[in-house]
Amino acid sequence: MSLSGGIIEQTRLTCAIGAMQTVVAIPRAVPILHSGPGCGEMIAGFFERSTGYAGGTTSPCTNFSEKEVVFGGINRLRQIIENTYKVLNTDLQVVLTGCTAGIVGDDVDSLVAEFAGQGKPIVSVETAGFKATNYESHSLVVKAIIDQYVDLFIEDNVPRSEKNTVNLFASIPYQDPFWKGNLAEYKRLLAGIGLKANVLFGPESGGVKEWQRIPKANFNILVSPWYGKPIADHLKLKYGQDYTWFPHVPVGANETEKFLNQVLEFAINQGAQVDENKARTFIKHQSEAYYQEIDNLATFLLEFRYGLPNHVHILHDAGYVVGLSKFLLHEVGIIPKEQFVTDGTPEKYQDLIRNDLKSTSEKREIPIYFETDGGKAQEILRSIRHKGRGLIIGSGWDRELAKEKGYDFLSAAVPTPYRLVMTTNYAGFSGGLRVIEDIYMMVLSTYA
Amino acid sequence: MANINLTLPEVQIREIRINSITGYHGDAKELVEAGKSGLKDKDRSFSQCMGCATSKAACMTILIQDAAVISHGPVGCSSCLHEFAFTYRVNSPLRGIEKPTPRRIFSTNLQEKDTVYGGNIKLAAAIRDVYNRTKANAIFVLTTCAAGIIGDDVESVCNEAEEELGIPVVAIFCEGFRSKVWTTGFDAAYHSIARKLIKKPRRRRQDMINVINFWGSDVFADWFEPFGAKPNYITPYSTVDGLKYSSEAAATVQACQTLGSYLGAVLEQEFGVPEVPAAPPYGIAQTDRWFKALGKVLGKEDIAEKIIEEKKKEYLPKIEALREKLRGKRAYVTAGAAHGHGLLMVLKELGLETTGAAIFHHDPIYDNKREENDQLAMGVNDYGNVPNFNVCNRQEFELVNALNRIRPDVLLARHGGMTLWGAKLGIPSLLVGDEHFSMGYEGLVNYGERLLEVIENDEFVKNLEKHAINPYTEWWLKQPTYYFLKGGTGI
């Protein structure tokens, strides 16, 4: 378990069944919950506007009652699955269990195997809430789909048979509010260096057909501080696909260039047929276009005489905490002060993340706290004060704290009722520019 | 007499206490009749995510100004509760709260090992930790499926903490699997509040009337003023102290009989606060009855008559003018029980045709056992029947099927997730969050004007219809709406 198991105030993550959103993010896939009646509502409410094709109130659910708790719910589940095929048009069904089914001990795997045996594209995965967080269960769900579904198509999809194709594992759908935009931007950037990326989630993916082609990819890319790594490890064993690991969200030019160069070198080593010169030219062009904007921006940043934030605290998952810290320090000139990782990072990954953040600057130390308990993180932040105008980047929970402290606030993490995100990306060159726009739109609006 | 036993920690669930059901297909009149002779619930052989009691108990406690709330379960069971922190903030100006404080919402974050060894010790520690952090005037502990099944002794843990900390530590039993009627969560919260917080009255205050409601606008202050009384809104935006002495009020009224059924009955039966024997004021006839009943309880019938006369003089011409414009428009309603009934009456009063309803559950009789409080019975009597009256606990597939068949001119919804389907079918759809918006004579004007606006401004839904994504099969849309309900052809 990644969480120390202490109490959590103001949660910024949810439980294992939250990975129903991993299913919702696959075009035309449906999560089927074998759970209590409230689980789906809790998850939909946590993420907000998260229905997708067949999530939220569309998702079938056995709605455990006292009867199922006492006698087991497997017959109920059978009925619900059978009728799901009649009522909903879907390409993939993923049965997720809740606490009730987990404790009662229903044999869901056998039942689902029966349906799969009849040729149905159906998968089961154990996601009892007390077993894991949604950051962890995201990997469980993806692995279950690979093992129980993708594997069925292996004969037509010879492992590593497409030299220039890669699988990308990055944002966790919905938990990363910018997942859709980020995946689209990664895909565009990777195409720019000559790689075809399976992004697997959202409108830029090819739905279940793309999932079927996962084995064909030459290698995999993992963009994450820790979550999703079990997927990449699993594929390495399963299909012999090596992976290159970039440990934080690449926001802005420095990190995006680094990311693309790392992938390019890895691709060449893996035997991909890419035109290196063309790829480098693409990166250079992207970077130049980006710096044209920063060039214009510099005048504003240096000359705006009425006050701009000079330091930032970020409460987010480790990928954003590190990615945004690096970006804001070097490319915007906002100094990262105390940072808070709220994603329940397992202890074994914490030092890697500390070191990654440490590498941001040789001349300054950026304190980092791993604190899943948002209330505690805020308590620490409440007692900290630095000179100048402060900025907090976090979830909706942090808005009130920012107000209390008189800081600027940018809503960029879930849960948040204060912001609508559709296809905005924070990753990549354009993502960096968007972060800048968002921060200063909010700052300048305080002068109205 | 209502089925209330405050010596027991757990409230009796609605299905047993008042014979509530979640599956029915027929018309409203039949349902009212059937309710008198004993309704039988019907199961479905297909179902979608319903929602559960825990978040309903949560909203009635999180919005108490000076309380903290602990969800005793895995972290997921507290994950949508941030929505109530937002609600508290946004609606606080409606209740004159200038500086809304952050809501204090915790999870004991139960892990797998806790499901093996039990979560009692963890909960005990959590309560003390929360108290030290918040210094709240009361701590509410909400149970969840996991805590319920592993059999944690939440009541004892809370009692021990209460003794040690010297503040009420209130266990609320609202596990999702216990009841198919999620409003049992309201009952669970009220039951525990009544057991642990509400005190025997020291006196009877003629200047205070309890209003059991959500977080709607403060319309009752104006209505009570001529009677020389002020509303005591419970439980959202109340304080722990304010709740304690809700037992001293002159009377209790409801914003929604489904919501406050249990608390109203408890206040009457256990603490001597009479519940006004009239369903909430939706529609002219019911508003007349409501003011009269209120006047009678307060011994000020003449004042009630005067209010009715004055208000009617002012609003009836406006209502008539709206009727002219709305007459014959076809409406469909989806909402929780009594509020849905209220909306149907408002629509009928405004001259619309009510073509059907998907109501989340049905209480054949409320806890006070008075027929005068039965909004549906009163409404059917005043305005006649409602066809296609479906009781369905937020089963979207049935709603989509019914809407597709009936194709009303306008869809009225009360809960999230439902208006989307009206819009996808090109039907102008309206969700009003403020439960007081359409109450009283003036409410008819408010609501009528909003309706006109919604029906008129249909460009967005007409465009959405052209591009709507629909996961439902063609086969399903052709089946009878109640195909999967017991007695239907598909079960």
TrEMBL record, chain A:
InterPro entries: ChlB/BchB/BchZ, Nase/OxRdtase_comp1. This is Nitrogenase/oxidoreductase component 1 domain-containing protein. It holds the Pfam family Oxidored_nitro. GO terms for molecular function: oxidoreductase activity. Residues 15-443 form the Nitrogenase/oxidoreductase component domain. It comes from the Bacteria.
UniProtKB/TrEMBL annotation, chain B:
Keywords: Nitrogen fixation. Residues 52-455 form the Nitrogenase/oxidoreductase component domain. InterPro entries: Nase/OxRdtase_comp1, Nase_comp1_CS, NifE-like. Coiled coil: none annotated. One of its GO terms (molecular function) is nitrogenase activity. It comes from the Bacteria. PROSITE patterns: NITROGENASE_1_1 (PS00699), NITROGENASE_1_2 (PS00090). Belongs to the NifD/NifK/NifE/NifN family. This is Nitrogenase/oxidoreductase component 1 domain-containing protein. It comes from Herbinix hemicellulosilytica.
